[in-house]
Amino acid sequence: MANVDLTQVGKNFVKSAETRESVELRSLWQDQPVVLFFLRRFGCQVCRWMASEISKLEPDLRASGVALVGIGPEEVGLKEFKESGFFKGFIYVDEQKKSYKDLGFKRYTALSVVPAALGKKVRDITSKASAEGIQGNFSGDLMQSGGMLIVAKGGEKVLLHFIQDSPGDHVPLEDISKSLGIAAKVTSGQRPVCNDDVCTR
């Protein structure tokens, strides 16, 4: 887990999808622990499946006083994402992508994005998503990767910092619960296993 400068990251502004108000990121963990899920794109099929998976934890997180927040790098696809109900937490947009950069979430190149998107992890998740009726599109910034940041109340410490390598990489629900020290009633499906050269860990 790379070092995270919460003071620096916390100064970045994100815009609420509900109120349209811009707030400092640190305000999201000021009064409670927070799970920050950084999506690659709102239209990304894999991201939508991950959002629906993480949302299974929302009742347990809420009962434990933990906020669940999804952050996207742009507004493209936001309306459809919200209306489709993929995510049960609060949604924000980091249009400057400053938090993505500060947290080490890489950008793909035109040459690296195609093999990454065709890797086994991604194929496994798109199959699961399709089986659950979750579709996606190719609108927006295809090059941005995402990840997760879990912060203790008041920014006391980073509980988990996860950086995607492959677009199919995600944090199992059990690991999210464990990092927060809470017991969850749900578990994630089988984690995709990478058997090709593209998505090494």
UniProtKB/TrEMBL annotation:
<keyword id="KW-0643">Prostaglandin biosynthesis</keyword>
<keyword id="KW-0521">NADP</keyword>
<keyword id="KW-0443">Lipid metabolism</keyword>
<dbReference type="InterPro" id="IPR036249">
    <property type="entry name" value="Thioredoxin-like_sf"/>
</dbReference>
<keyword id="KW-0276">Fatty acid metabolism</keyword>
<protein>
    <recommendedName>
        <fullName>Prostamide/prostaglandin F synthase</fullName>
        <ecNumber>1.11.1.20</ecNumber>
    </recommendedName>
</protein>
<dbReference type="Pfam" id="PF13911">
    <property type="entry name" value="AhpC-TSA_2"/>
</dbReference>
<keyword id="KW-0963">Cytoplasm</keyword>
<dbReference type="GO" id="GO:0047017">
    <property type="term" value="F:prostaglandin F synthase activity"/>
</dbReference>
<comment type="similarity">
    <text>Belongs to the peroxiredoxin-like PRXL2 family. Prostamide/prostaglandin F synthase subfamily.</text>
</comment>
<dbReference type="GO" id="GO:0001516">
    <property type="term" value="P:prostaglandin biosynthetic process"/>
</dbReference>
<dbReference type="GO" id="GO:0005829">
    <property type="term" value="C:cytosol"/>
</dbReference>
<keyword id="KW-0644">Prostaglandin metabolism</keyword>
<keyword id="KW-0275">Fatty acid biosynthesis</keyword>
<comment type="function">
    <text>Catalyzes the reduction of prostaglandin-ethanolamide H(2) (prostamide H(2)) to prostamide F(2alpha) with NADPH as proton donor. Also able to reduce prostaglandin H(2) to prostaglandin F(2alpha).</text>
</comment>
<keyword id="KW-0444">Lipid biosynthesis</keyword>
<keyword id="KW-0560">Oxidoreductase</keyword>
<dbReference type="InterPro" id="IPR032801">
    <property type="entry name" value="PXL2A/B/C"/>
</dbReference>
